[in-house]
Amino acid sequence: MSATPWSRRLFLSVTAAAAVAAVDSGCSLLGGGSTTQVKAAGDQTLEKSKINVSLIPCTDVGPLWLAKKNGYFAAEGLDVTLVNKPSGPDVISSVFGGDADFGFATYPVLVQAQLKTKGKQNLRVVADASAAKPDTTAVVVKKGSPLTRAEDLKGKRIAVTARGTMADLAVMAGLRAAKVDWNTVQWKQIGFADMLPKLESGEIDAAFFAEPYVTIAQAQAGVTTVFQPLTGALDGIPLSGYMATEQTTKERPKTVAAFQRAIRKAQTEAATQHGDTEVKQTMVDNANVQPDIAPVIHLPTYPISADPTRLQRVPDLMQQFGLISDKFDIKPMILPELG
């Protein structure tokens, strides 16, 4: 059997398998769910108990899977359905459209979505999800490629999941550090599932991978890392967060607070040695990562609070690279912890 078809099946399974989580709670993938008021921790009555959370399956959402698996949502009176989406913009659409109560996306996507609404619909960051750490992302080339340095990528075809996300922002920052004009790059928007086959076939020259795809591609095809974009000046930069519409946070503050508490507990646990092992197991359970690969996956940092000063690094970087034209103050987007 050739490597390429098998590669695509594995990558497709990693991307799609998280959708299995969407049937766990037994409620519809779309639609609003129950609005029956139930008792949560601390004897608080929730405005809505059955909620949908849209996400992109990756290591960033490990604590989210952990919160569901370990019953942290249930302890707060929440019946959570996790719905897999292919990209950040798709997550945003599901939240604005009402199909999801909460969503997960990278901060550049959140900032641009907020700007596009022009105040008609506001997004609020309800919890931080992840921050950059070495070895969690990589710009890779196929085995044996003559491209070995960032300087070699000038004018090349580089795959990212979507433009205007942390993916291409990180690559541009890495190229700038190597004094390479990122405007010469031929950007290719390709889902993670299709990147490795296209890399091996020569349709693209390089690809930006995030974990667990970095480790899978290394083990499966022997890809070579050209550079790690989220290191150096970008080490520790906030990557992604959980959001809801401002309307949701105002109309269902107790539900939002319950979600925040469950996420905070899971993020706190993920920072421990035992939690690290548990999060890696969620990759096996929810993202079809092979058991022998999971232990060597590199996880990001999981912050327990959304600090405005840290998060401001993202829109500042976006402005530097022309993703946004004016300075953007992210602090008003951040919802304080409600409980």
From TrEMBL:
<protein>
    <submittedName>
        <fullName>NitT/TauT family transport system substrate-binding protein</fullName>
    </submittedName>
</protein>
<feature type="signal peptide">
    <location>
        <begin position="1"/>
        <end position="21"/>
    </location>
</feature>
<feature type="domain" description="SsuA/THI5-like">
    <location>
        <begin position="59"/>
        <end position="271"/>
    </location>
</feature>
<keyword id="KW-0732">Signal</keyword>
<dbReference type="InterPro" id="IPR015168">
    <property type="entry name" value="SsuA/THI5"/>
</dbReference>
<dbReference type="InterPro" id="IPR006311">
    <property type="entry name" value="TAT_signal"/>
</dbReference>
<dbReference type="Pfam" id="PF09084">
    <property type="entry name" value="NMT1"/>
</dbReference>
